[in-house]
Amino acid sequence: QVQLVESGGGLVQAGGSLRLSCAASGYTFGRYAMGWFRQFSGKDREFVATISRSGGTTYYADSVKGRFTISRDNSKNTVYLEMNTLKPEDTAVYYCARAFAAATLSSEYDYWGQGTQVTVSS
């Protein structure tokens, strides 16, 4: 069955960096786009970044553009989110998800990971 497992979250000071990973299994990874979303406490999930099947196309939310980088390694069935210059307002649970094509809407994604907590202290 399809599984997406995030890792790499944690506590970091403002201005610091974290790299999230999402390991995929149970399907042909390179045939699907991937995305990262985040959920603030008590809020809906919001789009962070997405990457196409080949990795050649990426889109970012304005709030993270220039600070976050999404990438993928199809040989390792893994998608990454490099997060730099972190701010306290980046504190959230981060989820990876699978879609047929790169997309910004959560409704376009059919499988989701369990999430990993990122906390940025001021």
Q: Can you give a write-up of this model?
A:
This protein is an all-beta fold and 122 residues long. The protein is 0% helix and 52% strand. The protein is built from no helices and eleven strands. Strands 2, 4, 5, 6, 9, 10 and 11 form a seven-stranded mixed beta sheet that branches. A four-stranded antiparallel beta sheet has the order 1-3-8-7, with no helix packed on it. 34% of the residues are buried. The mean pLDDT is 97.
Set out the fold topology.
Layout: E1 3-7, E2 10-13, E3 18-25, E4 33-39, E5 45-51, E6 58-60, E7 68-73, E8 78-83, E9 92-99, E10 109-112, E11 116-121
Parallel strand pairs: 2-11
Antiparallel strand pairs: 1-3, 3-8, 4-5, 4-9, 5-6, 7-8, 9-10, 9-11
